[in-house]
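Hi Y.,

Following your request, here is the sequence exactly as I used it, all 414 residues.
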Amino acid sequence: MAFGGRVVVGLVLMVQAVFGQETVRLSLASQEAAEARRKAATTLGYYNLKLGPSAWRFGSGLGVEYNDNVRYTEGKIDDFIIRPGISAQMLLPVSDQNSINLKVSGGYSAYVENTGLSQFFINPGSELSFDIYAGDFWINLHDRFSINQYGYEDPTVAGTGDYARLENAAGLTTIWDLNKAIVRVGYDHQDFVSLSGDSPSIRDGSAEVVFASAGYAPKAEMLVGLESGGSLVTYEESNYALFTEAVQWNAGAFFDARVTEYITVRSGAGYTVFTPDFGPYEQFIEDDRLDGIYLRVEMRHRLNQYVDYVLSGGRNISYTFYGGTADLYYARLQATWRILNKISLSTSLDYDGGSQYYGITEEDFDRYGGSISLGRGLTRSLSSSIRYSYYMRDSDEGRDYDVNIVSLNFNYQF
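Below is the corresponding structure, written out as tokens. Let me know if you'd prefer a different format.
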């Protein structure tokens, strides 16, 4: 592939999956979050503070982490990080069925030696939402926000410890439950804002996203259907940009089912097309659109009374930290072990491989990793955990690294 073609392909892939397959998953996440809130609201003692008509639940945490490679380079620089944090959940009933909900958790990462890397963070899952139930309809108005800062969780990141990005999605999702059939439609305005400096290769972006899916339940605990979405994408002006606007659409199918009493499967696959507006660069572009396939498969299995595990994998094309794209193949194995009295044990094995495009560079890489975590309740309100993680990255561009991370955390629920 010629130099210009690599750049175009990279920029196209960046948006293709983020505003393609992700749009469908937003509605599913909203439904699950609403169900969790309904269950929590009916649990005696879940909320521990009453302020007028609203109910609140607060928590706090303190983490201490040792990272032997905070900049994720071949030459290692280690540091200790102290992470105080807080969390809050609020339920404000508007009627017997409708409620306003707030969930937020975050804190501050203080680096002992490399103080320039210290920063605030907001955990994914933080949101303000309003649930409306009317007959067979459920409407969720939401604003979901996070500030991600853990570079080792992103397989495309290497050579930097200054990793932070604000992500925000504001919109609505409507679900029409017809017993045997479920229809979902929605809209989101999405923003991605870099908080990691003024690199010209990192462009902030936004998108207007619409999505829809329709599923049919041929029997209990099985849903099969079609999903689709479309986006109008806009990027900030940059001398390094071939385009600032684009249109994307995707279409596919999904299958969710409880296969046996102990096994559930969720899967989806489809096709997506991304068409950028190259403007004055149009004459230099051989093909002004790109198409590709997305895939996701997840299996949850309760093996026996001692072991649960989740096996997942697929292909994911996503926006990267460097303002480029990553065409990833991934596999995950996460297990929970109930073999130690009063101690929770969990393990994970991860693989990510593929290509990413940033600036004028195309990179092929593989990353392997895993973790083990032990947790124990110390009192009714206080819990603790210790975790060890290891990641190794191999790149054809020389952006290799390996990192060992040990963390000790304490969490208190008021």
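The radius of gyration is 22 Å.

Thanks again,
Q.
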